[in-house]
UniProtKB/TrEMBL annotation:
EC nos: 2.7.7.9
Pfam family, one: NTP_transferase
Family from the record: Belongs to the UDPGP type 2 family.
Keyword rRNA-binding attached: no
Catalysed reaction, written as an equation: alpha-D-glucose 1-phosphate + UTP + H(+) = UDP-alpha-D-glucose + diphosphate
Keywords assigned: Nucleotidyltransferase, Transferase
Stretches assigned to the Nucleotidyl transferase domain: 13-268
Protein name: UTP--glucose-1-phosphate uridylyltransferase
One GO biological process term: UDP-alpha-D-glucose metabolic process
Record organism: Yoonia litorea
Keyword DNA repair recorded: no
Catalytic EC class: transferase
GO molecular function, one term: UTP:glucose-1-phosphate uridylyltransferase activity
């Protein structure tokens, strides 16, 4: 039985260049999917998974993230004085409390890669394996991290990554596993960062949820820059693969790449289609169906 996963790391220091100019002043993690920022979905997922400590690896220019994440008693008091109790309660329930929640903000001052961002959290994690959640990989439906943690507890591997099958021509956008599938688990014997389609060992692609043995920090500390001159998390995972083992996990939910404009739009339309409030809007746009007329 593996140790419990008590810490989640949220790498949120990126510049969000694909959404400029919208992200010039607003961090991409605060971009809303209808009315809920991406970071809120990630926090809710971690809480559902029973995570004890949340470590946000941010950048000094993105103070708005901390303002959103943490409780704002002054704002809630203002809402209460205006009789907006429902909105006050909604903000209170969504926010993290500095007194009752274990929250750490640490800085990644230079854009040196995802592996470097995880390494920046080294001094702030609780003992045992750690989870890493990329907020712009939005997974709707069945929450991913809770079912991953259950699978990890029963797994013999030290590292586990969330995976999905992608088209062969898409493999150059992902870390790709080699190995063999056994049900929902993929026993990996290697991981390659963004291979060309003709060199891809499979179509089993890593998406933004990881559970990593605590030795990942030692492997990252000695990691040389990889693709793009950055410290690649996939390289450090691969370095420990023979020693620890690696499983890919096929999650149940639906993943949206909200780091891209098309992925964000797909997520918005997906949620809108499930909400009666937006039915007429979708019909007007030719994206929904009118209710059948009564006989």
């Amino acid at each position: 039985m593996s140790q419990p996963v008590r810490t989640a790391i949220f790498p949120v220091a990126g510049l969000g260049t694909r959404f400029l100019p919208a992200t010039k002043a607003t961090p991409k993690e605060l971009l809303p999917v209808i009315d809920t920022p991406l970071i809120q979905y990630a926090i809710d997922e971690a809480q559902e998974a029973g995570i004890e400590r949340m470590v946000f690896v941010s950048h000094p220019s993105k103070q708005a993230i901390e303002r959103h994440v943490m409780d704002d008693a002054k704002l809630r008091a203002e809402l209460r004085s205006r009789g907006k109790r429902d909105l006050e309660n909604e903000l209170r329930d969504a926010a993290l409390c500095p007194e009752s929640d274990d929250v750490v903000f640490t800085m990644q001052h230079e854009p040196l890669g995802l592996g470097h961002a995880v390494l920046c959290a080294k001094d702030h994690v609780l003992p045992g394996p750690v989870a890493v959640i990329l907020p712009d990989d939005l997974i709707l439906g069945q929450s991913c991290l809770p079912e991953m943690i259950d699978a990890y507890a029963a797994s013999t591997a030290g590292h586990m990554v969330a995976t999905m099958e992608v088209a062969l021509e898409e493999t150059n956008k992902y870390g790709i596993l080699s190995g063999a599938r056994h049900g929902r688990l993929f026993a990996a014997d290697g991981i390659v960062e963004k291979p060309a389609p003709q060199n891809a060992p499979s179509r089993e692609a890593v998406v933004g949820r990881y559970i990593l043995d605590e030795s990942i920090f030692a492997d990252l500390s000695g990691q040389e820059p990889g693709a793009g001159g950055e410290i690649q998390l996939t390289d450090a995972i691969d370095a420990g693969l023979a020693r620890l083992g690696l499983h890919g996990f096929r999650f149940s939910g639906t993943r949206f790449d909200c780091g891209s404009k098309a992925g964000m739009l797909r997520a918005i339309l997906h949620l809108a289609a499930q909400d009666e409030e937006y039915r007429d809007v979708l019909i007007e746009a030719g994206l929904g169906q009118s209710a059948p007329e009564a006989a």
